[in-house]
Amino acid sequence: MEAPKMQYIDAKYDLLINGEWVPAEGGETFETFNPANGEKLADCANASPADIDRAVAAARASFPAWAAKSPQERAALLRSEERRVGKECRSRWSPYH
User: Fold this and answer.
1) How many beta carbons lie within 10 A of that of residue 17, not counting itself?
2) Is pLDDT of 2 > 60?
3) How far apart are CA 42 and CA 11, in angstroms?
4) 28-59 burial string, b = 16+ CB within 10 Å, else e?
5) What is the C-alpha separation between 71 and 91, in angstroms, rounded?
6) Three-class SS state of 66
7) Nearest-angstrom CA–CA distance, 45 and 49
8) Which residue did the predictor score with more confidence, 73 or 42?
9) CB-CB neighbours of 15 under 10 Å
10) Residue 16 backbone phi and psi in degrees, to 5
11) What's the pLDDT tens digit per position in 18-28?
């Protein structure tokens, strides 16, 4: 019996900058491939130096608020995000959903 094919890769991935998924400034992408079988997995946004500058600026702008949180608050936020991501992964990557 053949195992069900897992469908867990989106066709296209943008850049996550300042909490939003955005295409690369120039619209450029690159292809990624499964190293086991050569099958195309996805097109990914190809970040330009300007995209990297925007991402770094967003990270720097958000850092003071993060640094002001206590270690316990940061840990709680990270645990909450881990649970959210884990739940999404299980629902998307399970071959039996």
Assistant:
1) 18
2) no
3) 5
4) ebeeeeeeeeeeeeebbbebeeebeebbeeee
5) 30
6) helix
7) 13
8) 73
9) 20
10) -95, 105
11) 989 999 999 99
- Cβ–Cβ < 8 Å for 13, 43: yes
Q: What is the pLDDT of residue 86?
A: 85
Q: Evaluate whether 54 touches 17 at the Cβ level (below 8 Å).
A: yes
- Token representation of residue 1: 């019996």
Residue 87 structure tokens: 């739940």
Beta pairing partners, 33: 40
Instruction: Name the token pair of 29.
Output: 């992408």
Partners of residue 21 on adjacent β-strands: 16
Are 42 and 11 in contact, with CB atoms under 8 Å apart? yes
Show the 3-state SS of 16-56: EECCEEECCCCCCEEEEECCCCCCEEEEEECCCHHHHHHHH
Distance of alpha carbon 19 from alpha carbon 22, whole angstroms: 9
Instruction: Take residue 51 and report the two structure tokens written for it.
Output: 């995209």
